[in-house]
Amino acid sequence: METIFSGIQPSGTLTLGNYLGALKQFVELQDDYECYFCIVDEHAITVPQERLKLRQNIRSLAALYLASGINPDKATLFIQSEVPAHTQLGWMLQSIGYVGELERMTQYKDKSQGKDAVSTALLTYPALMAADILLYQSNLVPVGDDQKQHMELTRDLAGRFNNRFNDIFTIPEIRIPKVGARIMSLQDPTKKMSKSDENEKGFISMLDEPKKIEKKIKSAVTDSEGIVKYDKVNKPGVSNLLTIYSSCTGESIEAIEAKYEDKGYGDFKQGVADAVIAVLKPIQDRYLELINSDILDDILDNGAAKANVTANKTVAKAKKAMGLGRVR
Ligand code: TYM
């Protein structure tokens, strides 16, 4: 069976973009692959975090993974910092990465822009991400469109290590969903939907109440044409809503266009809101049951134990290949 790895940062409540671009695919893939899903808390600290809030976000993300349908009997769910091999291999990969290639990462440029104090880890972040993936000899990495560049670097680092030392890493492929790989902001549909958006109306949080979801979708920016048609360049707002609708219901964009052919944006937006609520409400109900339960800790303990076994084997191979430590 082939292996999958993916991770999500516990840096605030997830958005509908995180769900449609990532989590939704994870749930679909867990039946056919050996899956490792990670709460990447060490990635989150590349920008300042409040201690107690981070702890809360880690737990909340674990509950959201499960509430979305990740089944711990099929997939391994764990917290990155509970598996020390991630930072160990991350360091080894930093030693073969180049400052120049890291500085070219658009996510680094975006996150460091205009800041006086940028952490070293924000720059070296992609080496840790590569370690996450390579530790499990992953074949496939399901992510949203914004992770493409990091994935290319992961493949480069794996190939470089294999060539320079020993052929120990599987070179992973990226998997991006056909619809929903890049959900855009509801207020500025040329920008990615992001939980760090200052305008709260721009994103839907996975835990927003149905009334709030409806309100945000009703106030989404569209255009004055009044025609429900997919045209990313000239109608980015409507196209984004069509993508959300299609991704939530599984209906094709063409079928949705036909359904709203003689109707205005009011009806269409109501349809989008209903589709989003139908997906998120059951997840929210399960989340509330899980968030304070002990099951969560048992699942994370088991996940870390299993991940440690696999990850430590790879670190041992990498150390040997690089000549670190002693012969035993
Ligand atoms: P993060 O935490 O920013 O996002 C988690 C996942 O959600 C996807 N995503 C989106 N998809 C569609 N539309 C959007 N608007 C949207 N916003 C976010 C992201 O593409 C991602 O799949 N570097 C990663 C975390 C990570 C990782 C890994 C991922 C660390 N190690 C190893 C895969 C494998 C990140 O910051 O994702």
TrEMBL record:
GO molecular function: ATP binding; tryptophan-tRNA ligase activity
Motif ('KMSKS' region): 192-196
GO cellular component annotations of the record: cytosol
Keywords: Aminoacyl-tRNA synthetase, ATP-binding, Cytoplasm, Ligase, Nucleotide-binding, Protein biosynthesis
Binding residues annotated for ATP, in chain numbering: 9-11, 17-18, 144-146, 183, 192-196
Subcellular location: Cytoplasm
Catalytic reactions on record: tRNA(Trp) + L-tryptophan + ATP = L-tryptophyl-tRNA(Trp) + AMP + diphosphate + H(+)
One record GO biological process: tryptophanyl-tRNA aminoacylation
Residues the record lists as binding L-tryptophan: 132
Spans through the membrane: none
The organism's place on the tree of life at top rank: Bacteria
One of the Pfam families matching this protein, by short name: tRNA-synt_1b
Chain location of the short sequence motif 'HIGH' region per the record: 10-18
Record EC number: 6.1.1.2
UniProt-listed Gene3D superfamilies: HUPs, Tyrosyl-Transfer RNA Synthetase
Family the entry assigns: Belongs to the class-I aminoacyl-tRNA synthetase family.
UniProt function note: Catalyzes the attachment of tryptophan to tRNA(Trp).
Subunit structure: Homodimer.
Protein name as catalogued: Tryptophan--tRNA ligase
Gene (UniProt): trpS
